[in-house]
TrEMBL record:
Domain of life: Bacteria
The protein, known as: YdbS-like PH domain-containing protein
Organism: Eremococcus coleocola ACS-139-V-Col8
Keyword Transmembrane among record annotations: yes
TM helices/strands, residue ranges: 7-24, 36-58
Domain YdbS-like PH stretches: 67-150
Pfam families according to UniProt: bPH_2 (PF03703)
Keyword Transmembrane recorded: yes
Keywords: Membrane, Transmembrane, Transmembrane helix
Amino acid sequence: MPSPFDILAIFWGIFDYHFFIRFYSVSSLISQTGFFNFNTMLIPFMLLHLAPVWYAIFGPIWRAIRYRTIEYVITNRRVYISGGIFGRDVTSIDYRDIEDLTVNVNPLERLKGKGTLKLTRDYSTNTGSNYSVSYGVRFKAIDNPYQVYKLLKKVALDVYTDQNYPNAYGPEDNSGYNTMLD
């Protein structure tokens, strides 16, 4: 399903196409009469002016390539997100830093059997006329999002319990949790 930006880019491209054809015919007529040749300026201008169209065309391609390079790893100590096209970026989050674990499944993800897990909160800052939003860490378009959610909740609880209530302080028959933290 196209986004509103894609629809705008289509209309933008149609307008620029008609503008380019008309301007090119007028500039060809002017250049034949000996005045300044507009053709040398027209092509670079139109390439730059079509930036929304290029973004609408190449944006999904870029996201598809980037999607194939992302890896999500869940260990018994923390969560890792690794990805990058030109270089490898690694982000790690300890279980105690996972704040608002939520699952979001939009209609397109539901059709593909995928979903998005939000691990940390989004933050917004407002400094006068400058407003920005920093999005939290997410596992995007993962398979079986509800099973991964349950796994993360269980491991986070196990780690939290082991860190706050070590087995050495518990009763003798306490077998502890399966986090292997010593």
